[in-house]
Design a protein that fits this description.
The complex is a heterotrimer of chains A (316), B (559) and C (371). Chain B is an alpha+beta fold. In chain B, 27% of the residues lie in helices and 18% in strands. Chain B is globular and about 70 Å long. Among the domains of chain C are: 56 residues, no CATH class; 189 residues, MetI-like fold (Orthogonal Bundle), CATH 1.10.3720.10. Helices cover 63% and strands 4% of the residues of chain C. In chain C, helix 1 crosses helix 12 and helix 9 packs across helix 10. Chain C is elongated and about 80 Å long. Classes of the chains: A mainly alpha (316), B alpha+beta (559), C mainly alpha (371). Chains A and C meet through helix 1, helix 6, helix 7, helix 8 and helix 10 of A and helix 5, helix 6, helix 10, helix 11 and helix 12 of C.
Chain lengths: 316, 559, 371
């Protein structure tokens, strides 16, 4: 067990290291992406640009720049090129919005995904199932930014039912917070509900044909109890594993498009803005945080299941 | 079964309740209170109250000596004042310089190299500290050291500024200040006519001696102005609160403000920004943002009395690299100028373009009154003929452009146009952030593409920086057409020395120069940008729209 | 588009089993086991019974054909190209003369005639022509990206699963690297830098605005989605007897991978194919919205949607038309792909057996088989 954990930690560290190098190199490779020119402004002379390059260390060899930046990140001291603000502080301020969006949407899509999936499975093969399938797949096939823009236009502008984007902190006003989050939650969940209901449907159908279900039925246990106690509980395992991965991905910046459309000023939006401004430090930090979230959560899930299901442990 | 149904119902109830409560809560835009003001030039505006300004792009910095964008200076020019400032009026009068913290316009020596000021007495910063003459050299040094993006205006001209910038001097020798008499003297290396304009930059405003030389955007330093910056949350919001002491300084011609406070919120979605102002949920749509064209019909029908397009002195043009084929050939350049349809570009800009063919824009001294040398209407056949004569049909051209709308659409149109007149044109659209560094890089050496210039100050010499052969540099070049014309150089040598306070005396010379530039077709100008002045119905629409600083927030008032 | 969690079968246990070496249990309802019907023919029969999947598959095919006939439409119906601007022109609509683009920048809506059938965009370009050319670009990017993904993922999955050890360790870490990197950020970062400079790999030079750039990026980003399940499958297959048998007969590793293992993962690949096409098209739209996808002036559904969003209230056709096409195309291939998955799903047989014992009616069993 312990060896397993240690091995995972080491590979986690390696992955993060590789990710940071990859990001750094991508930005180095951008032609005319020299941050010194941008920082110096449109009226700067070559000497002034050279000055900035020197004071920020852009004329150091790449590996040295990389190490200095990473050092600053680890000590929490790193500032962005464009506005010279501390990146960690910016991210800390952006985090509540992203967390609100991810957790809320995550719970919603999990719940409705399960409900629809279960329903679909029970009515397998019938028209309801087919209809729900197509509906689910429509959700999967629609780009989220399109859905968000249309939703905002109809529900927030034409019929001012919802506010026009923006984020209100939970600590400031819980009800206003909820009011602002409903549309983003719905828009983000639509995509995942489709996928999750399909996954659950498939798993439920598989489980329903397992021997122990047959046995339970033979024993005379009511269909409903069979469903909840045996079928659902066992179909959930892969769902939970999938959910933790998707949740991590959303936290790590996967909800960029939703955050941008609804102007939530979350971590994803911050990252997207930074990329477009070719601002390397924030991008590095966000990418690494996002990747860590994914890696950590997937490791935790693996460990958890290894705990719960002895079969997995043996093969893992 | 029961469990989840119960949970679902509870969620629905909670949702319904919250929507109900929120809907009843509605929007409150702050209470209105009445306070009396003392003197000042803001007579006529109702006193008191607050307003909300929405900006689509955050100011690059809130530290006055780092900021360089229009969003930032909008806030800074009413909260930080320097030796000189501009008249708070619209149009040409707004480009006139008036004394700020100096008690009068400068005494300039005959050779144009020495400027003398006397500081007004009794002025205090927003934190109560008294303003001293020695704060000025400190502020300039802070601006150079921090460093400000426009510091070359000072380091190129003020004696000792360049040495200070390099680090070989401890202070700027060319600026002397005497706290006892309040006398400030500035010596220049050579006569520079636009120097008074430079002194009016918010970056050269006074800040207290000893203000730390690092980015103070989250907690801006104290300044002298009708308002002061407070409550900053970077990239989200900041507030300008009226400085009650300012009126007591009795500085003539500077409004003391009507509103008690102005809250600025950053909203990165311009659709939402415009919709909020339309629905009166916010008060001002920042002119620095593009009004979503789709909302125009609604705005023009519902909000006609509180919306107007305001042209600002700026030049939008396509540069034509005169050192490289095919635009080293004058016929090719003339062909472009003949074929360009400015009406089309105006439509693409949703009417936010005031068409023009001259490089010095309307509203700036030196804009010619004469007709366009290549006509106002597009002549496609003439242009095609010209290209055939020059033997340039099929010449490959790469057209550079930015991603931002409508600039991308301008280049889409322009590329198609070049193809129609006979070139073989392809476009390259690149990210806004690296656009100017890329086309300004000698390694790229672009043939043609989008360019624009918003005035740094209302002086034609600012625009002619882009036509000056001396300003061509291998990186960060701004003279994209690489113009190096002896006639232009001779004229500039003479005209750049004329002080900004005497600009009208050489107006006809600037006009003649600009007509010459248009005839040589070094660029293809299509017009000046117009920006939206768009308010909620809470605010009086009579406030000042300044040619340089857009909405003058110190003249805003509730109806 | 947030990260797409890929196929419903990333559960690990997977409903995709080895399709080779099994004998079908019950191919027809109520009939005896039909000897000799291979699993693919069985799957095809099941697919053909799934009318919904077929209908949507046909929808996708129609869209593809329409898009690849774009030049025909441009030349013979609309008489204009996808990049031709007509900003200041006027057009006759039902007896009235209208501006293609109004002085305030509003483009004309659908005229339902040959010219500007579906309206114009803000540069006066024919929307229908751009829609078809854009569809061609989006589909090309989708197909190329999918091809890249499938080929590379197969190679990586096979190699990692077969050779194990160090090779597997390294490859699995690379897959983790790509997997953990936030998809959209990777896409934007690569897209921005490549769009600016283009890349040169040996003899292959791709210019910044070539279609290959977004295709390569999207292709790479999705490799782990396919490679991981393949690798898992190969890890299992490797231990089977037929592999040992081949090895004993003296077959080299490459031969074993190609001849023995590859056919067995083929059904997994077939299931993934339509899914990856759908994902690629969606990711391209997302990247274009963020400015890192297909470069202007080449149209794509993604760039058209993101350009159109600016004009939603008053020119909704600019967003609606490409949006609807995109959704229909992706939906079409998703539903079809779902049908393929169901058809290839050997579990269906097991379900028949189980259900039979519960004594259900003939009609219901028929329905079950259609899964």
């Amino acid at each position: 067990m312990a060896r397993f954990i240690v091995r995972r930690l080491i590979s986690m560290a390696l992955v993060l290291f590789a990710i940071s190098i990859l990001t750094f190199l991508i930005f180095q490779a951008i032609p005319n992406g020299d941050p010194a020119v941008r920082m110096a402004g449109r009226l700067a002379t070559p000497e002034q640009i050279a000055q900035i390059r020197q004071s920020w260390g852009f004329d150091d060899p790449i590996w040295q720049q990389y190490l200095t930046t990473m050092g600053k990140i680890l000590s929490g001291d790193v500032i962005s090129y464009t506005q010279q603000l501390n990146v960690m502080t910016q991210i800390k301020e952006a985090l509540p919005a992203t967390l609100s969006l991810s957790i809320g949407a995550g719970l919603i899509w999990l719940f409705f995904g399960i409900v629809f999936g279960l329903f679909s499975a029970i009515k397998a093969g019938r028209f309801t199932d087919r209809a729900l399938t197509v509906l689910a797949l429509v959700g999967v096939s629609t780009p989220v930014f399109l859905l968000g823009a249309v939703a905002l236009y109809f529900l927030a502008f034409k019929l001012t039912i919802f506010p026009n984007g923006g984020y209100v902190p939970l600590t400031q006003d819980p009800i206003d917070w909820l009011y602002h989050m409903i549309l983003p939650w719905i828009v983000l969940s639509v995509l995942f509900i489709g996928v999750y209901s399909r996954v659950l449907r498939s798993n439920v159908l598989d489980t329903m044909s397992e021997d122990y279900v047959r046995t339970a039925r033979a024993k005379g246990i009511g269909e409903r109890r069979v469903l909840v106690r045996h079928v659902l509980r066992n179909s959930m395992i892969p769902i939970i594993s999938l959910w933790s991965l998707d949740f991590a991905a959303v936290i790590g910046g996967g909800a960029i498009l939703t955050e941008s459309v609804f102007n939530l000023h979350g971590v994803g939006q911050y990252a997207a803005d930074s990329i477009q401004q070719l601002d390397v430090p924030p991008v590095l930090v966000v990418v690494m945080l996002g990747a860590s979230a994914v890696v950590v959560l997937s490791a935790i899930t693996d460990v958890l299941f290894a705990f719960l299901d002895p079969r997995i442990r043996l093969t893992g | 079964m029961r469990m989840w149904a119960r949970t679902a119902c509870a969620m629905l109830v909670a949702f319904a309740v919250s929507v109900g409560v929120a809907a009843c809560g509605g929007n409150d835009n702050g209470s209105t209170s009445t306070t009396t003001s003392a003197g000042g030039a803001s007579a006529g505006g109702r006193q008191g109250g607050t307003a909300t300004v929405l900006m689509g792009t955050a100011p690059d910095y809130l530290d006055p000596q780092l900021a360089y964008t229009t969003q930032a200076v909008e806030a800074h020019w009413i909260s930080y004042t320097g030796l000189l400032t501009y008249r708070h009026e619209e149009g040409k009068p707004g480009t006139e310089l008036i004394p700020g913290l100096a008690d009068a316009l400068p005494r300039i020596s005959r050779d144009g190299r020495t400027y003398e000021f006397t500081l007004r007495r009794g002025i205090r910063y927003s934190d109560g500290r008294p303003v001293r003459a020695s704060d000025f050299p400190y502020s300039v040094e802070r601006m150079v050291k921090i460093p400000w993006g426009g510091r070359s205006f000072v380091t190129n001209y003020v004696v000792g500024a360049d040495a200070f910038d390099r680090g070989s001097a401890r202070s700027i020798s060319g600026i002397t200040a005497d706290d006892a008499t309040g006398r400030i003297t500035i010596r220049l290396r050579e006569a520079y006519g636009a120097f008074p304009n430079v002194l009016a930059f918010p970056a050269l405003a006074f800040v207290p001696r000893g203000t730390p030389i690092r980015n103070l955007s989250s907690d801006p330093p104290p300044g002298v102005g009708a308002y002061m910056l407070t409550d900053v949350v970077p990239n989200r919001t900041f507030t300008l609160r009226r400085n009650p002491a300012f009126a007591g300084f009795r500085i003539p011609d500077i409004p003391t403000g009507n509103l008690d406070s102005i809250r600025v919120n950053i909203v990165s979605n311009t659709n939402s920004e415009a919709q909020q102002v339309l629905n009166n949920q916010a008060d001002v749509f920042d002119p620095g943002d593009t009004l979503p064209p789709a909302l125009l019909p609604q705005i023009e029908s519902q909000a006609r009395s509180r919306f107007e397009r305001k042209p600002v002195p700026s030049t939008f043009y396509f540069f034509l690299n005169t050192t490289k084929a095919p635009f080293d050939n004058e016929k090719a350049r003339i062909a472009v100028n003949m074929a360009i349809d400015r009406d089309a570009l105006s439509r693409i800009a949703s009417g936010f373009l005031q068409t023009d063919c001259f490089f010095i824009p309307r509203g700036i001294v030196g804009h010619p009154d004469s007709a366009c040398p290549y006509g106002d209407r597009p002549d496609l056949e003439g242009a095609q003929r010209m290209l055939r004569e020059a033997g340039l049909v099929g010449a490959p051209v790469t057209v550079w452009g930015q991603e931002r709308s409508p600039r991308k659409e301008y280049v889409d149109y322009y590329t198609d146009l070049l193809n129609r007149i006979g070139f073989r044109a392809t476009e390259r659209i690149i990210s806004d952030t690296v656009y100017f560094p890329t086309i300004g890089n000698a390694r790229t050496d672009p043939q043609t593409g989008f360019a624009d210039w918003l005035q740094d100050f209302p002086n034609p010499s600012d625009f002619y920086l882009l036509m000056d052969g001396r300003s061509i540099q291998p990186t960060n070049n701004q003279n994209f057409s690489k113009v190096n014309d002896p006639h232009i150089q001779r004229e500039l040598m003479r005209l750049n020395r004329v002080p900004a306070t005497e600009l009208d005396s050489v107006a006809s010379d600037w006009q003649a120069l600009d007509e010459y530039t248009a005839r040589r077709a070094y660029v293809a100008v299509y017009g000046a940008e117009a920006v939206p002045k768009f308010f909620s119905d809470k605010l009086s629409f009579d406030s000042v729209f300044h040619p340089l600083y857009f909405n003058d927030w110190s003249t805003l008032s509730l109806k | 588009m947030a990260i797409d969690p890929a196929t419903p079968d990333t559960t690990g246990s997977g409903a995709i089993r080895t399709a080779g070496g099994d004998r079908p249990v019950a191919a027809e309802p109520g009939g005896p086991p039909a000897a000799g019907i291979g699993p693919y023919r069985l799957a095809r029969r099941r697919l053909l019974r799934n009318k919904v999947a077929l209908a949507f598959g046909a929808l996708f095919a129609v869209i593809v054909i329409l898009c690849f006939c774009a030049p025909l439409y441009a030349d013979h119906v609309a008489h204009t190209g996808p990049n031709d601007n007509h900003v200041t022109e006027q057009v006759q609509v039902g007896g009235e003369t209208k501006d293609v683009v109004s002085p305030t920048g509003l483009p004309i809506g659908p005229t339902w005639h040959g010219r500007f059938l579906l309206g114009a965009d803000q540069n006066g370009r024919d929307l229908a022509v751009r829609l078809l050319y854009g569809g061609r670009n989006s589909l090309e990017v989708g197909f190329i990206a999918t091809a890249i993904t499938m080929v590379l993922a197969t190679i990586v999955g096979l190699t990692a699963g077969y050779f194990r050890g160090v090779v597997d360790g390294v490859l699995a870490r690379i897959l983790d690297l790509i997997w953990a990197y936030p998809v959209v950020l990777l896409g934007i970062a690569l897209g921005t830098s490549l769009a600016l400079g283009g890349i040169t790999i040996g003899p292959i030079a791709m210019k910044g605005n070539s279609l290959f750039v977004p295709a390569v990026i999207i292709g790479i980003v999705y490799i782990p989605y396919v490679a991981k399940p393949i690798r898992g499958q190969v890890l299992g297959l490797r231990e089977k007897e037929f592999v040992d048998a081949a090895r004993v007969q003296g077959a080299g590793s490459l031969r074993i991978m190609a001849r023995e293992i590859l056919p067995n993962v083929a059904s997994t690949l077939i299931v993934f194919l339509p899914l990856m096409v759908a994902n690629a098209i969606l990711l391209e739209a997302g990247l274009s919205y963020l400015g890192a996808g297909i470069q202007p002036p080449n149209p794509s559904w993604g760039t058209m949607i993101s350009d159109g969003i600016r004009l939603i209230p008053s020119a909704i056709h600019l967003t609606f038309v490409p949006g609807a096409m995109l959704v229909l195309a992706v939906l079409g291939i998703n539903v079809f792909g779902d049908g393929v998955r169901d058809a290839l799903d050997p579990r269906a047989r097991v379900r028949i057996a189980a259900k039979r014992e519960d004594e259900i009616g003939e009609s219901e069993m028929e329905v079950m088989v259609e899964h």
